[in-house]
Amino acid sequence: MARHNPSEDTLSRKYNIIGEDVPETALFEGDALVSSLSETPRVIKSVYYYDDTGSELFERLCSENNYYLFRMERDLLTTNAKAIAGQTGPVSLIELGSGNEEKTTLLVEAYVETYGPTSYTAIDINHSILERAAENILSSTSDLNFLGIVGTYQTGLAQTKELSGRKLLVSLGSAIGNLYDEELYSLLLSARAALSPGDYFLVGIDLDKETEILEAAYNNQMAILGNLCVLQHLNWRFSGNFDIFQFRHVAFHNKSLQRVEAHLEAMQAQSINLQKLNFSFQLEKGEMIRTEIMRKVELHAFHDMFIEYGFHPVQHWTDSYKRYAVCLFQLSGQPTKFDSEAPLSG
Ligand SMILES: C[S@@+](CC[C@H](N)C(=O)[O-])C[C@H]1O[C@@H](n2cnc3c(N)ncnc32)[C@H](O)[C@@H]1O
């Protein structure tokens, strides 16, 4: 992908954002949406939460009292960012789905304070989020070389191979918990391909817990609005005719699959048409469209999954109730059964 050419208005910026020229159709693949909406039950992938409205609603969700994830992760990073920096030594940071920069700033500051000027690459599908994150992080930490990549986790990671030196890949906000199995495995393979043995992966992940706590976190006002706004996103992006007043938010703890699921239930039978995708379908009254999954993991099983992909647990940090964890992994040079699919780069 071509590097972004600084234009007049960007010359004074202390950061660079690339990928602004990537066609949106490459980021939000309509074909994939058509096939997920044709499944039983119908599915809309969580990436559709994050247009500008959805990103703002997610940020507001993070300050809801019962949405404990944000505060717990922020507390863990406030207390342990320096220890994380101490474990890894100097690194280039690469963040997947950087979103709100508040927690990242804690991490970045720990590296700058410990090792001096640091390089930080933020990958996010939402361009405005990257602009804002750059302005805000740089206003508190100037010793930072900030590169934003507008892209998906996969396309963004593919562009980080040129970075030299030890790397720390970061995923916060339990964001990888929104990925379905095949998406998560594919992300782990892409991470292996983008990193070299000895590089690190820091992952914030929500742990399985009581249904009452989980369901409260995903049934507050901001969670409901955010879910309904997925339909608005599809309407403007694909010229759709969803009427959000004809849907009801439903989120519940699916204990056997260890995840919370968010759905939109059709309150009337209706015909949906996404003009730009040349795709129509009929929804029955009471039919549910699954819009998001939020994995709630057991720590040992989570570690085992990373080990299978060659990432060895170094250390993890949890709160006293073991509700949330920040886990540090290191990529080993040992071959795994996936090596023919994504050979290690270093
Ligand atoms: C759950 S939010 C987490 C944000 C932030 N890391 C935090 O901890 O608050 C997910 C972020 O990842 C971005 N995102 C979601 N799916 C993505 C994808 N497939 N590729 C790139 N970015 C994605 C969204 O725009 C959003 O900023």
Would you write up a description of this structure?
The protein has 346 residues and is of the alpha/beta class. It has 2 domains: 30-49 and 212-295, no CATH class; 57-207 and 297-331, Rossmann fold (3-Layer(aba) Sandwich). The chain has helices at 24-27, 30-37, 52-62, 68-88, 102-115, 127-140, 153-158, 181-194, 211-217, 221-238, 299-308; strands at 15-18, 42-43, 92-96, 118-124, 144-150, 167-171, 200-206, 247-254, 259-266, 270-274, 279-283, 288-295, 311-318, 324-331. The strands form 3 sheets. It has an 8-stranded mixed β-sheet with strand order 1-5-4-3-6-7-14-13, with helices on both faces. Strands 2-12-9-8 form a 4-stranded mixed β-sheet. Bound molecules: S-adenosylmethionine. S-adenosylmethionine binds at residues 47, 50, 55, 58, 97-100, 103, 123-126, 129, 152-153, 172-173, 175. The site of S-adenosylmethionine (SAM) has 19 residues, from helix 3 and strand 4.
